[in-house]
Amino acid sequence: MAGIMRERFVEVTTELLATHDRLALLTADLSAKLFAGARQEYPDRVLNLGIREQLLIGVAGGMALAGMRPIAHSFAPFLIERPFEQIKLDLNHQDVGAILVSAGASYDIAGGGRSHQSPGDVALLSTLPGWTVHVPGHADEAEAQLREAAAGDGLVYIRLSNQANERAHGLAGGGGHGFRVLRRGSAGTVVAVGPLADTVLAATGGLDVTVLYAGTVRPFDAATLRAVLADQDEARVVLVEPYLAGTSVPQVAAALSDRPHRVLGLGVGHEEVRHYGTPRQHAIAHGLGSAGLRLSIIEFLGTA
């Protein structure tokens, strides 16, 4: 599945440029060659700014102020972490919309070292208001999210990954941003985010737990979470996120503030793994393999 989400992004964006006159695409060298045909067709709306990520966001803000709908694309650490001040000032503070589409996820480019890893991107962006944050688990979901974002006006972040589920869980039940019930149980609820859904389903096989799928984490679907926990005296929730562990714990706490609850946030650990390795080795090191997840979930819920 490696690279399929990014390939779909290139394909769909190129198509959307032909049908949305105010849509523009901005790159900072990464993936620029993949858009060579689109740049030749739409030279005023497909721009490669070179390795200047702060400028990438600044130009996106300027285009948005001029009435354009910009899509800015790079690897996650270069799209969110490096130009964060420009996101805060040139997009949020100016009260304009834009679409940020990243690749690389937390450690898809593990061989690139720490500079190419970004487990903190969603947590960082969550400090700003008004963002819709999509974490697609399948290329079909990424396409639907991109098409919706292109037709809108708001602030949208789409976090692409090389890891993917076998099917698009997020498109079941008519689309939308809400959580999806993948399995029902009574001992607790596990919220599986994006490309970790299949791993969570494998990890919880035979356990009496509800599994919810989240392809969109901001806004956080508090209503569905509350609904599946309605008949439980004490809500027990496990979050499994493919980025910094605990990123969405405050959203769970806010959703359940009026009732007793416990929450465990699983994800990429706060301690840096100082080895290159493969993405799978990084996932296992952070306890995000199916065996590691199962142990953590059983220990927290006290069930087997």
UniProtKB/TrEMBL annotation:
It comes from the Bacteria. Residues 3-168 form the Transketolase-like pyrimidine-binding domain. CDD domains: TPP_PYR_DXS_TK_like (cd07033). It holds the Pfam family Transket_pyr. This is Transketolase.
